[in-house]
Structures are given as structure tokens and as C-alpha cells.
Amino acid sequence: xxxxxxxxVVTLPGYRYSAAYYKAEDSPELIVRYSPVQNDLQIQMTAAxxxxxxxxxxxxxxxxxxxxx
Length: 69
Description:
1 helix; alpha+beta; four-stranded antiparallel β-sheet
């Protein structure tokens, strides 16, 4: 996971799963910029499972950064 400009980007190294989240000034929560829709057949984790994991990780990082409460 890394912060790139105003995005928190969560990736799964070696696979096609990647998601980005940002905090709009008028929003109390993170907003999804992009996330995977299709499953990567090289891994057993589905795109939906990755999105859930990525959302949780991004929220934790956003709290650390003071972006959300």
C-alpha cells in the first residue's frame, strides 16, 4: 500500500488487483477512485474479496493519516 498524491493505492503484488481511494473535502469517508471488477484467474482470491480487504486497509491508512476519524 502506498500514498500517491491524494490517493491511497492498495495493490496485491504479482497480480492484477489494485484499488485506489481518495478523500474529498466534502466527504466524511473515502471514495473509491478505481477497483477491480473482474477476477484474476491466477489467484483464488476473488475481486470482491480483494475489494473488501483493500477497503479495510485503505480506511486504516486514512485514519493513520488523519483523513478520516
